[in-house]
Design a protein that fits this description.
This protein is an alpha/beta fold and 405 residues long. The protein has 16 helices and 17 strands. It folds into two domains: 257 residues, Alpha-Beta Barrel (TIM Barrel); 78 residues, Arc Repressor Mutant, subunit A, CATH 1.10.10.920. The strands form four sheets. A nine-stranded mixed β-sheet has the order 9-10-8-7-6-5-4-1-11, sandwiched between helices.
């Protein structure tokens, strides 16, 4: 692969001049029935009265953004939260109509909606399908009701499975199941049972994340006051290895550190945009966007968000210029999460006008010698050992913050 002659500014100008660049869309629904014990997301309970004005505000933000940025093509829409499935279906329809009115959505676009598996009926899922939602993400989390109670999920495993089956009955043929492992006092055999039970229902995609002790969560408070014990790092690593092993045997494609797809066809196209560090717009309170070398963040609270949108049509409270060094570092940090694909040399050279080894050759050689990276002609990727120490590897590629500003 030869290095292209374009410099950075020319690259950016060329990108700006392109009229059909793909941009993924994330729509944030910040409402939940209650807060789960481990959750630090930007979500709010007991705000039913805001559903309608909030969705109207998001539709307005979509319209204003589309007018500002001009023509872009949308390959994926992700309605996340929060609990989008709390919304009446017509409000979800309103969001998707706004997107289709103001952006050009690919006919084959992936349209995902996150749903809480707390007994939603097949009729609800049929309505979602008629709106063009073609992928569901269900937060099942565990197959044990005591673990679901510890997580304060508000549903049983039986309800989760019934919801999953209702979605299948309504015709959804692309369903993700989210799981959490590394819970306080979780024996590995319970994690094994969760994996086996979930594999048995044959989801198309599976995400498994280890429990993180986030600030201001009930779970962290319980650890701090001794009510539950902090999970042991070695046990958590063993659980991750077990997930790899069982899902590998069940012939799932392990395509990202924490994500498996039944076949590559079912890999999350929306999340691939993030992992490839490609552009996206986030709409709604607390949503982030990354577009043309800048990152934007919206105001957090839904009331403030509605007010700002009503007054100015925009809710951005932070704007960050992403310089070339940071963009390269983030491209490595995110791309290395992709197990097979890793960071492709050709894609990197095409995007930045410089070969990967010219920028990171020394770092790649060092991490390869440590057994954490594998470098071949086409790409650089994590080794199995590197997957367990991902954060250490990613840190090596980010520029020193003091040189950023
Ligand atoms: S349902 Fe999801 S977003 Fe809502 S509180 Fe629970 S973990 Fe957080």
């Amino acid at each position: 692969m030869t290095t292209t002659a374009l410099n950075w500014t020319e690259k950016q100008n060329r990108l700006r001049a392109t009229t059909d660049q793909p941009v993924a869309l994330y729509l944030h629904v910040p409402f939940c029935h209650h807060r789960c014990s481990y959750c630090d997301f930007n979500i709010y309970a007991g705000m039913k009265s805001l559903y309608v004005p909030y969705i109207e505000a998001v539709a307005e933000e979509i319209a204003v953004t589309a007018a500002r940025v001009g023509h872009v093509r949308v390959p994926s829409i992700y309605v996340g939260g929060g609990t989008p499935s709390l919304l009446p279906v017509e409000l979800i329809g309103g969001l998707l109509t706004a997107v289709r009115t103001f952006f050009e959505v690919d006919t084959e676009a992936e349209v995902t909606l996150e749903a809480n598996p707390s007994g939603l009926p097949a009729a609800y899922f049929a309505q979602l399908r008629s709106l063009g939602v073609n992928r569901l993400s269900l937060g099942v989390q565990s197959s044990h009701d005591d673990e679901l109670y510890l997580l304060r999920r508000g549903h049983s495993f039986q309800e989760a499975i019934e919801t999953y089956e209702a979605a299948r009955q309504a015709g959804f043929d692309n369903v993700n199941v989210d799981l959490i492992y590394g819970l306080p006092n979780q024996p590995i055999e319970k994690w094994r049972a969760t994996l086996e039970r979930v594999i048995a229902v044959q989801p198309d995609h599976l995400s498994a994340y280890s429990l993180q002790m986030e600030e201001r969560t009930a779970m962290l408070r319980w650890v701090q006051n001794g009510r539950v014990s902090e999970p042991d790092d070695d046990d958590v690593a063993t659980m991750y290895e077990l997930a790899q092993d069982l899902l590998n045997r069940a012939r799932f494609d392990h395509y990202e550190i924490s994500n498996w797809a039944r076949t590559t066809h079912y890999a999350s196209r929306h999340n691939l945009v993030y992992w490839r560090n490609e552009p996206y717009f986030g709409f709604g309170c607390g949503a982030h966007s990354s577009f043309e070398g800048k990152r934007y963040s919206n105001v957090l609270h839904p009331r403030d968000y509605i007010e700002r949108i009503q007054q100015t049509g925009a809710a951005v409270v932070e704007e960050e210029q992403i310089d070339r060094a940071l963009e390269m570092g983030e491209t490595l940090m995110l791309g290395l999460r992709l197990i097979e694909e890793g960071v492709e040399r050709a894609r990197f050279a095409d995007r930045f006008g410089v070969e990967l080894d010219e920028v990171y050759g020394t770092t790649i050689a060092k991490l390869t010698a440590q057994g954490l990276l594998e470098a071949n002609e086409g790409c650089v990727r994590l080794t199995p050992q590197g997957r367990l120490l991902g954060n250490r590897v990613f840190g090596e590629f980010l520029p020193d913050e003091s040189q950023q500003r």
